[in-house]
Amino acid sequence: MEPPPLLLSLLLILCFSNTTFSVSPPVVLSPTPSPTSSPSRPNSSSSTSPSSPSSSSSSALDPKQLRALQSLNIPTSKDPCTQPTLLQNNITRCDSSKPFRHLLSLRLSNCSDDVALSFTALKSLSTLQSLQFVNCPIAPIRFPADLVASLRSFTCISSLRKLTGVWLARLQNLTDLTVSNVQVNASGTFVILGNLKKLKSVTISHANLTGSVPKHLNLNLTHVDFSGNRLKGRIPSSINMLENLESLNLSSNGLVGEIPTSFGDLISLRNLSLASNSLSGSVPESMSAIPGLVHVDLSSNQLNGTIPKYFSEMKSLKHLNLANNNFHGIMPFNASFIKRLVVFKVGGNTNLCYNHSVLSSKLKLGIAPCDKHGLPLSPPPAKEDSSEDDTSDSDYADNDGDDSAHKEHHHGPSKVVLGVAIGLSSIVFLIVFLVLLSKWCG
Ligand SMILES: *[C@@H]1O[C@H](CO)[C@@H](O)[C@H](O)[C@H]1NC(C)=O
Ligand SMILES: *[C@@H]1O[C@H](CO)[C@@H](O)[C@H](O)[C@H]1NC(C)=O
Ligand SMILES: *[C@@H]1O[C@H](CO)[C@@H](O)[C@H](O)[C@H]1NC(C)=O
Ligand SMILES: *[C@@H]1O[C@H](CO)[C@@H](O)[C@H](O)[C@H]1NC(C)=O
Ligand SMILES: *[C@@H]1O[C@H](CO)[C@@H](O)[C@H](O)[C@H]1NC(C)=O
Ligand SMILES: *[C@@H]1O[C@H](CO)[C@@H](O)[C@H](O)[C@H]1NC(C)=O
Ligand SMILES: *[C@@H]1O[C@H](CO)[C@@H](O)[C@H](O)[C@H]1NC(C)=O
Ligand SMILES: *[C@@H]1O[C@H](CO)[C@@H](O)[C@H](O)[C@H]1NC(C)=O
Ligand SMILES: *[C@@H]1O[C@H](CO)[C@@H](O)[C@H](O)[C@H]1NC(C)=O
Ligand SMILES: *[C@@H]1O[C@H](CO)[C@@H](O)[C@H](O)[C@H]1NC(C)=O
Ligand SMILES: *[C@@H]1O[C@H](CO)[C@@H](O)[C@H](O)[C@H]1NC(C)=O
Ligand SMILES: *[C@@H]1O[C@H](CO)[C@@H](O)[C@H](O)[C@H]1NC(C)=O
């Protein structure tokens, strides 16, 4: 008995299509990475001439400043004023003065170890209004007075090894100060803030800063971030004077005491984090008067009392984290409010519970349902419980009727793939079996 030719050709086709399958992935590879990476590579072969004759209308960078950039290891084969994209990592901005242009802003990032700041170079760069160091662990030096007078914005992220309060306090014309991931040795924040009277935005984070939150802050401040330091003491009630304050981040410090009752005077506030301190007492009623709150993080403190219902009336609120505190009583929010938020966390409050005739257990809030007295029911030995007691990672977007089901889609593709795989392999198996059978027969 001959093997059926149809089956043989099927086998052949399968064989060939198999090989093409295994070859196809490298063929599919498109040459995407190379065009994006090549323009960012500096042309190191020529590093002197500031020529860019193409744009004859604008003048070239001041040769003194060009030499200063070269001494900082910044490639200047192309004029950084006319072609700033060539210096992607070291962004520059220039004025348009004649005969030579001058640098207004400079960012040094990812410096190599052999780069050193020199007083002469910085003196040549005294037109800078903005100076940024990002990942440049070079030694700091005393800035020339001209540069100090000119600087309006100074950023130091994981750079300059170590700074002191006195060093920063000299930069008196700053409106923006950002220092992060750098040790700042200062006898309190006032050394810095008391001298920088023009500041509008200040970030000194993850800097091991000690002392307390100063009682007298510049009234024009819009952003204050002292997160990740070792600040101690209470939040001064005089903070209510900062009526322009839009964001306040005092998270991850050692602050104690209550949130000042005057907090509601901060009428411009949008982002607030007091997370990971040792604050106690209740959330002040006055916060209901802050109209534009977007982001509220009070997690990981010892706050107590009931959770204020007024949060649900805040139209812009997107992020509410009250987890890991000592709140008690019935959680006052309904499902439509909770689903409106991007982040909502209340887990880790052992005396807090939810009304199960208002909220479904599928919301996975990380707290127990209430009994009829408004006290948490002791957790039932049900299977749901295991998923409920991992507190903070609430994915409450589960199905509760209307806007559900996007989780279900995950099962779709994998089931189809599995089905196809099983189908294909059983066809192959059948063919092999038939071929063997026919050989054995014939
Ligand atoms: C680099 O500079 C050399 C000499 O000036 C020039 O011939 C070459 O085209 C340049 N390469 C790039 C990528 O700009
Ligand atoms: C600095 O280098 C890191 C990798 O070492 C890279 O991920 C990052 O994008 C670089 N930053 C800049 C601003 O070039
Ligand atoms: C950016 O500046 C730093 C410090 O001067 C230098 O080490 C680095 O090579 C520069 N990177 C680029 C891409 O120009
Ligand atoms: C701040 O800037 C003004 C005007 O630009 C200048 O007169 C003053 O000396 C500067 N202050 C410091 C401390 O450099
Ligand atoms: C802060 O202090 C700790 C312990 O003394 C140290 O490990 C950490 O590196 C310091 N942080 C900075 C930014 O220097
Ligand atoms: C900070 O400065 C004081 C004196 O100004 C010094 O005693 C102390 O050791 C310094 N701390 C650090 C971490 O450098
Ligand atoms: C606050 O800003 C206003 C205008 O922006 C300015 O006139 C005033 O001097 C500033 N006050 C302080 C204390 O910096
Ligand atoms: C508030 O925080 C969000 C990120 O959570 C950020 O995009 C926004 O710019 C911040 N707004 C202010 C005023 O700081
Ligand atoms: C506060 O700072 C921390 C750490 O620096 C950051 O993770 C968090 O997003 C900030 N929160 C707000 C509301 O700005
Ligand atoms: C809340 O905490 C404050 C300060 O620790 C305390 O005085 C008060 O008795 C507590 N209230 C409740 C209801 O636990
Ligand atoms: C949920 O609470 C909000 C705010 O309290 C309220 O406006 C809304 O009507 C409530 N929705 C339902 C379905 O009860
Ligand atoms: C839970 O909500 C229902 C319906 O709104 C209400 O009748 C009941 O009293 C609430 N339970 C508690 C313990 O507050």
Automatic annotation (TrEMBL):
Comp. bias regions, Acidic residues: 386-402
Composition bias, Low complexity: 26-59
Keywords: Leucine-rich repeat, Membrane, Repeat, Signal, Transmembrane, Transmembrane helix
Source superkingdom: Eukaryota
Keyword match Transmembrane: yes
Region (Disordered) residue spans: 26-61, 374-410
Membrane-spanning parts: 416-437
Keyword Mitochondrion: no
N-terminal signal peptide: 1-22
PANTHER family per record: OS01G0750400 PROTEIN, RECEPTOR-LIKE PROTEIN 51-RELATED
Protein name: Receptor-like protein 51
